[in-house]
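Researcher: For the record, we're logging two predictions in this thread. I'll number them. Prediction 1 follows.
Model: Prediction 1, sequence and structure:
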Amino acid sequence: MLTDSKEKLLSLFVPVSLNEIDSAKLMDRVDIKYILHSSKIQDILLKMDGAYRVLEINGIRQFSYLTTYYDTNDYSFFNQHVTGRPERSKVRFRNYLSTGATFLEIKKRTINKRTLKWRIEKGLPSDNMLDENSSDFIRKYVPNELGLLSQVIKNTFTRITLVSKEMDERITIDYDLSFSDPYGNRADYPFIGIIELKKEGFSRASRMSEIMRSYSLHPTSFSKYCIGTSLFYDLPKRNLLKPNMLLINKIKNEFKN
């Protein structure tokens, strides 16, 4: 979690409710990610200059997430991503720990570099087996014959959600990342921060984009699922993530002293 001083900083933002943010869900959007050391988050929040409102639910402005990713026996979704396939998908259950809601979500990247997302409220299976309703939902949006899907990794993190005053841009700030596999292995990455801009188009007219440029930070392809999977499974194509792993090590050493 953020330090007390950062929590006080968040309290200075004008809140926005979940109902209000519905108009900025952006289920068909452009995603732009930046990876940085989590210690920079406070300074970035200070530079917002009132351009964004912060999501608040029941007095809470930091939200914990648990995501469970599914893939095929031959890791089809993982391979789609690391090989740079223009159109690729992910299947996951996301538990919003602060509200208790859980959704089965499908996230798809299109050949036009847009991100589409569909979801239904659905609890995580206790026995790792998808029921008929879940399978039908997945087949609707991932029509290829994929075979059996099973749990691969789990990922937890904390998120701050910001919305522009015009409600045409949403920003998520993720930190306190951890990964685990079904066999009890775990890896923690508290030093990693992920800032993601979700917009309807590629326009650079954004206060957050300006802040990122002031730090000489550039958009980066970064998948929590792929990074976590590469940590626990010796897959043939995981070496394709070497640039990401080098970036992670660079960020880790950035504030070592």
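Researcher: Logged. Prediction 2.
Model: Prediction 2, sequence and structure:
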Amino acid sequence: MKITRFSIAPLLILTSLAQNAAGQNQVAIQGGRIIPIVGKVIAKGTIVIKDGKIVAIGKDVKAPVNAKVIDATGKVVMPGFVDIHNSSALTQSNETNKNVPYVSVMDGIDPNRTYFDEARRNGVTSVAVVPGNATMFGGQAAVVKTAGAFVEQMVLKRTAGMKISLRPAGRGSRMSHYANIRRELETARAMLRRRVPSRSKKSSGKKSAKKSVKKSSKKQTGGKKKSTGRRRITRSSSPKVLALLKLVRREMPAFIYCETAMDVVQATRLTTQFRLKTILVLGNDTYRAAELIAKSRLPVILSPTLVFWKTNNRTGIDQNIVLPQVFRRYKIPVTFQVSSPSRTSLGSSYLWFQAATAVKYGMPVDEALRAITLQPAKILGVSSLVGSLQVKKDGDLVILSGDPLKLDTWVEKTIINGKVVYDRSKDRKIKQLLPASKK
């Protein structure tokens, strides 16, 4: 067969198209100062992302020929922020019924909510969507990425925990509220104890022995199996009980909201009594129970208001309470959550601001950055995928204009699964708020 230039041309076109298609799945961010969170800072490094995963990172890494190159020279590159506790992604933060442990936030997340736009603009790439605090058993949380047309495209962890609030919803008393929570958990635990026990090694014998036992039991019961008097948990069990069973089996953690120091006492009791995997979601007044929290060694999410004034009821003297200082005094690792934007606390609606506030009052920079990236990812059980820049992890990162915790630093680009989901140069809102100055 004679090969001509006309027969070679289609092959060249197909090869070029194949290379271009492969190149679309590869991204190289190069020239930036990389803060991987795990390991040393890399000056003028390169990160290569293929099919949404990091495949190479380092100073001597070269960008593939067919990769899309993003120039980060003079910028800072770090993992996307992880928002550990937020209900703003929901159509409503709570159900009207305060006892719905079987409800999942997956049915209430709206990808079109303003929260996701703001999250990408502020470098947040993953969020734990958790029901609000006005509840008893508020339902099950989920961890999602902050970009996607549909919820199913955003899921990182479908079941990330269950919300329990120790603040009475409505006009109920704390005493009855605590009692109701214990009653529901005790019901689930009692159901667990009534399960038919698994066969132990001692009871397991030879097949012949088993057959003889079966025959004798049939004779005694008229051919029917003798009832053990214990209930087996089946799919027909109450959805509420089945959901709570996941808590007492330690199959999912409990996000326990504590408004007061006394709530912390109750939370630690519930944790011990029912062997819960607890994550403490703390209100302002819980700093009084810092010593107890330290002894419990439970993961902690601080109140959005990190600095506030408190009047001592005995002395009448006003005290300036700095939560990061109080918890560092007891060597308690913390993570941060944000508040809804308001005129009085605009800064607390940004994760970077929370970390910067902690640094202002003594927290090391490395620890503060870890508290908004890897630490929450570990608590949520997704650190194998997000929270740091490492090979085989998801290509979720932010490109910043400067130091992560400086007031004049901007998010230039937010990248999720190797795709740019926010670009400040194309942000219409920013252009309207900050119009270019006339020369």
